[in-house]
Known about the structure:
By secondary structure, this protein is an alpha+beta fold. The protein contains 40 helices and 16 strands. Strands 9-10-12-11-15-16-14-13 form an eight-stranded antiparallel β-sheet, with helices on both faces. A four-stranded mixed β-sheet has the order 3-2-1-4, sandwiched between helices. A two-stranded antiparallel ribbon has the order 5-6. The two termini are about 55 Å apart.
Amino acid sequence: xxxxxxxxxxxxxxxxxxxxxxxxxxxxxxxxxxxxxxxxxxxxxxxxxxxxxxxxxxxxxxxxxxxxxxxxxxxxxxxxxxxxxxxxxxxxxxxxxxxxxxxxxxxxxxxxxxxxxxxxxxxxxxxxxxxxxxxxxxxxxxxxxxxxxxxxxxxxxxxxxxxxxxxxxxxxxxxxxxxxxxxxxxxxxxxxxxxxxxxxxxxxxxxxxxxxxxxxxxxxxxxxxxxxxxxxxxxxxxxxxxxxxxxxxxxxxxxxxxxxxxxxxxxxxxxxxxxxxxxxxxxxxxxxxxxxxxxxxxxxxxxxxxxxxxxxxxxxxxxxxxxxxxxxxxxxxxxxxxxxxxxxxxxxxxxxxxxxxxxxxxxxxxxxxxxxxxxxxxxxxxxxxxxxxxxxxxxxxxxxxxxxxxxxxxxxxxxxxxxxxxxxxxxxxxxxxxxxxxxxxxxxxxxxxxxxxxxxxxxxxxxxxxxxxxxxxxxxxxxxxxxxxxxxxxxxxxxxxxxxxxxxxxxxxxxxxxxxxxxxxxxxxxxxxxxxxxxxxxxxxxxxxxxxxxxxxxxxxxxxxxxxxxxxxxxxxxxxxxxxxxxxxxxxxxxxxxxxxxxxxxxxxxxxxxxxxxxxxxxxxxxxxxxxxxxxxxxxxxxxxxxxxxxxxxxxxxxxxxxxxxxxxxxxxxxxxxxxxxxxxxxxxxxxxxxxxxxxxxxxxxxxxxxxxxxxxxxxxxxxxxxxxxxxxxxxxxxxxxxxxxxxxxxxxxxxxxxxxxxxxxxxxxxxxxxxxxxxxxxxxxxxxxxxxxxxxxxxxxxxxxxxxxxxxxxxxxxxxxxxxxxxxxxxxxxxxxxxxxxxxxxxxxxxxxxxxxxxxxxxxxxxxxxxxxxxxxxxxxxxxxxxxxxxxxxxxxxxxxxxxxxxxxxxxxxxxxx
Length: 915
């Protein structure tokens, strides 16, 4: 439907006069709805063909202009005509906000200002009401205000309204009214309040970014309101428009705010973000602004990103997105620097700080290349980097050494000088020494490294790092891009060393001051994920990179080898702690054989903690910390040649005597009878605190005549809740327990399973906490415990409960995790270890334990780990005879049965882990 067709509709109103508002709506709305529908379809088709987001947004805006024009003409020309209008019967229809900018996304609001000469009259009220009715009939989201010019000036004390007026655009009606508003707005507000407006907009931006996500490298970014998104570009232009009194972005070059290249960057960022936003709205059919995992792949395909260079299409798309977000950050810094220059006078203080850094050139002392400018480090002139490219590293080294910020002008010049960073500078001994100083600084290495990264210096100086800048990993586990994760991990390590995390990580706090290879640790932290996105295993490829760059940074051969070892094994401690039975001597011995020395054990613990904490909010838990501490202490014993050499029977005896001393109120006969009920494994696997609690729990249950009972407690520091279950043992016991947990919303992270000699199961199920307050968590634990007891007593059918928690209908999953089952008899002396990995979903653990039960396998312990959408569940099992599963045919049958679990409901989207 064309504009001519709309004009024909208006002509028809002349031929058959409009009777009332209902008649107007009946005649206009169907035609306008068809015009908008066809216009949206044409805009989407053009977007797919040309991939121009701004062109799409402007086309949608033009269509909306025609719709508003037709409604206005229909109302004013054919319904409420004013042949001899009085001074009060004047009206201007003005577009404001995003609509005022001349751009609309498919799901955007339509913001309108109905501008009056002074107070509202019956005529203007009728016109506004009629226009709104038609707009609402079209199902448009309309933001509207009816104000006089005087009202606008008064209401503009509110910065949100002032911003809306700043972007106003005249549409139809009495243009002199609008001109009067613009003249007064510029004269009475803009000319006198620039500093206040800038301050308000920057504070507003900070609040918005904090709400949407403080990092621009969040892997599910908000395209509109997130850091580095469209709203940041809007804010830059609002500020520039207000301060520099320009009307169009292109005028910012003439105003001296941007160079031509910087303005071109502004335009590229704006177009790309609009492209993504328009695709998001078209795909979802709503005003969706968050680029979630399930949408990223679809948007990448629509834009045309294909797999290349070891990255999938969606990863390449998100890398492009994060580079744009970084460019938006660069533009923000430029604007802030220029505004600061307008408001303050430079106060250079040469040699006050940097006088002692004078350097020889050609046998003579040269003038320093740096100065303090408004308490920030700046270059003396624009030739500083050209004169000596090492200054590109020295700038950041001085910032770290003296705890001073860098003037944005210097950062801007560094970015424009990146071509000076080549093989010669990368091999320069002084530059590398300064970089190593920054990386291993006790001040704020994360802050300075991030400044280097934002300027582009870090990726040029360390090309291996440059490859992972803005690279995301398409999974739910990592919250940040790879480069952001590495910088955050360095920051966490620095916090541990500085003692800022002592209460959270007491063991790390205790050992960090005892390590000998401090520089190697920080370099390993910086490099541990440096090889992400390559076809080969990133740990091994990263170790090769470490051996290459270590000598270049100035590390000794021994330090370089330590870095390479840490990078190659940076996942070892985490994987062992979370997915292996730490009470099994074979586990500890195998881990100790790889670690070999106490120094490596300390370094690996520190690196592992920082790595996990830097993944994202909520990933680190106290329970993971407890597992790591247990692994550390058990390995420390082995490496020290201590208690690990004590005979197994002697360790059992010592554990029993330790419990006997704690149960001083028990008789000898009572204790001996209780001790005889437990196999040696119980005494070796449980700590004394748990042994005491379980002994009293079992004793009280027997006195009360309860054969099925539970108890529970929560641990604030460890971030878990423990449920202990006492019940007659049978093969499907763990399946019933996990099913009850799934039905009650319990997220299992570990399970310790024991069977007494008289056929009772004494199992400890560890759940992640759901609530911060202990009272709330204990109420939830009570619900989970009650569900377990009812299921074990046969009062409910567990399969029905679990099925009730599954999604009502299958949804397309954004992730593909190929299921894998590994069966290993070398990891334990007494059990077969089955490791199962695949796409997580509600009830998965119940389905797996049910399958193991049907296979007649006894589960000795279970270790549950979830990495975002990927579940990794490890079971230590034996056959019903208590022996390992060694027959190849039996192993093949187990593997087939477990893989079959993942074939059901394959289209289901993953949720948070629940049993």
